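so my prof wants the structure for this chain in the tokens format not the other one, which i didnt know existed until like an hour ago. anyway here's the sequence
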Amino acid sequence: MTTLGWDTTQLPSIFASDQTLNGGNNLIPSEPIPQETLDAIPAEVWVLILTFVPPARLAVLSRVCRQWKGIIEHQLPLWRYIAVKCALGDGAQQGNTMELVLGHTLVICELCLEASRKGVGSDLPLPVNRQDALGKTWMCRRCRRRYYTKFPQPTRLAQPRDYDSVPSPIDPQGVQDDHVRLTYSLDEAVLVRARAVHGGDIGIVAHQVDANLNHLLRRRRRKMLTTKLALVGLEFRSDSKLCGTYLRGSWYDPGRVADVMKEMEWYYAETSYWDFMNDDFGSATSKIEAMAEWLRILVREHGWGSRETYKRTIIETTADEEDLLDPRQGRPRLLPPPSLWPLIDGWLQHMFEHMGGSEDMDLWDTTYRPDPGAFTISIETDDEEE
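here's what i got, hopefully its the right format
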């Protein structure tokens, strides 16, 4: 993809170069630029200039004037470039990639335009007040390390949070005690190590789940979760415990939060999950029994074609397709979300193997139940490097 003969695939190398700009002030004009000069700049040139502006700042600049709004929203190749580069779901193939990218600013580095893998703690892009013309920039852990190699942070005594951010020290006898901890926490080596592991002091603070930093990130976290929910057809719910806990700074994977909420929508709408919950079965057991009942109905209706049927997208339901209707509510069934497909496939595979080649669905092993651990909600992650 090119603009004015310029190859946009050069974006990563341009941003990632992280070079100082001859003192940092030579790019800032000493006098305001006359409006008539700005008006004379062709739109194609603005496209080239604005392509170098970080996504979050582009959202602000789109409110400057109608010309910039049109350029930023409809002409910049940057949005699709980032959406594809960061693998931002199916939305990368859709029209409004700008909103998709802005919804992921929590995890997209403004310097290298890479998305963080974990999206929590020190792995997040964090604000750094750079000493060059870039000024305050939200940088990923890798870019922060490169920057602090060129601009080392001031030395200081190591603090307890630095100690907690690196592996615990052990004395020669293999014993850990308060004396060893105190001695090691005052050692400059632990500070150097903590800064290297987490990308500077700001990374150490993020790793320790600082309340002030969480407040700063709250708006971006909400935008991120709202976007993830929208990608699976859901809306942000202020009464949701999962949503509230995530906004308060938990180390939840927002993509997994969206998957779990989609799964629960399906359980409540298409199975007897709530009935089992009312009988005090517990969440995991209720899911197992509700899915077992749902699978029995599925197999009796569709037999050996069950595996393909339950994944099928229902576009339109006619009178000849009554088997696709929910008899209780008279509407097309909700399909199980893709996050449940591996579990359902494994269950069906066990069933078909037990039946052999028989067409008698009564031969299904109705006593089989998967490991309850597969039905336990697990959405926490960490900021450790893979």
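also thought this was worth mentioning. Residues 1-27, 170-185, 314-330 have pLDDT under 50 and may be disordered.
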